[in-house]
Write a structure and sequence with these properties.
This protein is an alpha+beta fold. Helices cover 35% and strands 19% of the residues.
């Protein structure tokens, strides 16, 4: 495997790990008809090269009903490269912000915000987010019901 090139086996390993990240090397080897040492070496290389960023446990949100999830669109006043970068650095420091995406369209950013209750949400929006120098406005929508949550990215092997 070259520095930034993945082959068919790498994609197969990643596809399985995205579904069940705690699969042991022996289990992966069995499913992919390879030796555990081959699988171990592949995963180690992909971790070292940044293709695998982390292995995490995904909680069942239904068991934690006290969590309030909102998606907030944010519009900035200044769109210079420096201003965009500054906003991204500042918002990344907030533990309430689970995800931050720079987007196209009517808004500049989409934030996934998770808090305990409306009081914490109000405090975060009024005392933290809206007090950032470059924020013009925000618009939030709250998650009422989580219908589907899929964290597996579709992987497409590039033809060589």
């Amino acid at each position: 495997m070259q520095d930034d090139i993945l082959d068919k086996l790498d994609y197969e390993i990643l596809a399985l790990l995205q579904i069940q990240g705690d699969l042991h090397y022996k289990e992966l080897a069995y499913k992919l008809h390879r030796s555990p040492s081959t699988i171990f070496e592949r995963i180690t290389r992909m971790r070292e090269r940044g293709f695998i960023a982390a292995t995490i446990a995904i909680i069942n949100r239904e068991k934690f009903r006290e969590l309030m999830v909102s998606y907030s669109h944010v519009t900035l006043k200044d769109h210079s490269s420096c201003a965009l970068q500054n906003f991204q650095q500042q918002v990344a420091l907030f533990p309430q912000v689970m995800e931050c995406y720079h987007t196209t369209g009517d808004y500049d950013f989409l934030l996934k915000i998770v808090v305990r209750d409306m009081q914490e949400y109000t405090h975060f929006i009024t005392k933290d987010l809206m007090t950032l120098d470059n924020v013009l406005k925000s618009h939030s929508s709250f998650v009422v019901n989580e219908v589907k949550r899929n964290l597996n990215y579709p992987l497409f092997k590039h033809s060589s």
